[in-house]
Design a protein that fits this description.
Length: 144
């Protein structure tokens, strides 16, 4: 509800700022007053529109930024009210200990099997070439 009211106020201030900025005279507008264009400034008083419009634009801009900052702050705190008390998991300062189940006895680590005699050993010298294993006879292939 509060955010809706501030959204409506935000749009009204933005439209008013656009209107006031477009009503102001530019820097080159004073050059035309020498040719009889000075009579249009009497609507806002003897001093002209620059004083009233610039002050009104300044206060609308200040209120526009204040409403913007409040809406951002309100939306951030409304989205996650406990942002400072979040559980960071692994990145937190304290790591929880792993649970220990005392009902299950610890399992012994399996040992490596003993060396087998069929496994070839490394060649004894640097230039020695190991002997080729004996070829097993294959009875499925016949020569014609």
């Amino acid at each position: 509800m509060l955010l809706t009211v501030f959204n409506i106020l935000f749009v009204i201030i933005a439209i008013a700022m656009i209107a006031l900025i477009l009503m102001q005279r530019g820097a080159g507008a004073s050059a035309g007053s020498g040719f009889g264009g000075g009579a249009s400034s009497t609507v806002f008083g003897a001093r002209g529109s620059s004083n009233f419009l610039s002050k009104a634009t300044k206060w609308l801009a200040i209120s526009f930024f204040a409403v913007t900052l409040f809406m951002a702050w309100y939306a951030m705190h409304r989205a996650n009210p406990n942002a400072m008390n979040m559980d960071l998991g692994v990145m937190g300062s304290e790591v929880p200990a792993a649970p220990v189940d005392r009902a299950v006895p610890p399992v012994a680590t399996p040992q490596a099997p003993a060396a087998d005699a069929t496994v070839p050993t490394a060649p004894p010298a640097e230039g020695a070439v190991p002997a080729a294993p004996p070829a097993a006879e294959d009875s499925s292939q016949e020569t014609p």
